[in-house]
Amino acid sequence: MDIENLSVAALLKFFEQYFPLNLAERKEVAVRFTERSVKRRGYILQQGDVAKYFTFVVSGCFRQYVVDETGKEYNLQFAVENEWITDLCSFYSETASNTYIEALEPSVILQIKHDDLLFLYTHYHKFDRNFRIIVEKKYIDLQNRVMQNISITAENRYTNFMARYPNLANRLPNVHIATYLGITPEFLSKVRKKMVRPA
């Protein structure tokens, strides 16, 4: 790919909200990232596999989830345009993942391999800082979610979800939102009806 590629242009725009990139750095992005199209319900990671890629979503929507011993699914996170997704533990430790990452819509992504990312960290320190910010934000999101699940009502969790993902309500089935919030789809429907009911 080259730096004029539309997907690469979207990624460069994302990076440059933190630090401006010079031409050499922009060219490295084009070389190190691989573009891929993913069909709806296609997987970019399955349980037991090593997460080999850090993924930037150009278009589409993904969910990361786990499955318990009874087969019940629990959504951990969603990623839409201009967001990142991977199993961070598996990616950085190069060990088997406990999660799945599935496309909920036809999607276009850019992926970078572990070794290529380490190359960017070593040779172009702006990327080290960029990805530190990305990982820190993921950690903050996770910490906030854990705190919300143990300290606030389902109604407030839903309100916070809508603030975090304002455009997802019409893109996600109720069941996916419900498992993310730790409630049943039926209870989510009650919450939604209660929130739209006139006072």
TrEMBL record:
Domain Cyclic nucleotide-binding residues, every copy: 17-136
Range of residues in the leader sequence: none
Superkingdom of this protein's organism: Bacteria
Protein name: Crp/Fnr family transcriptional regulator
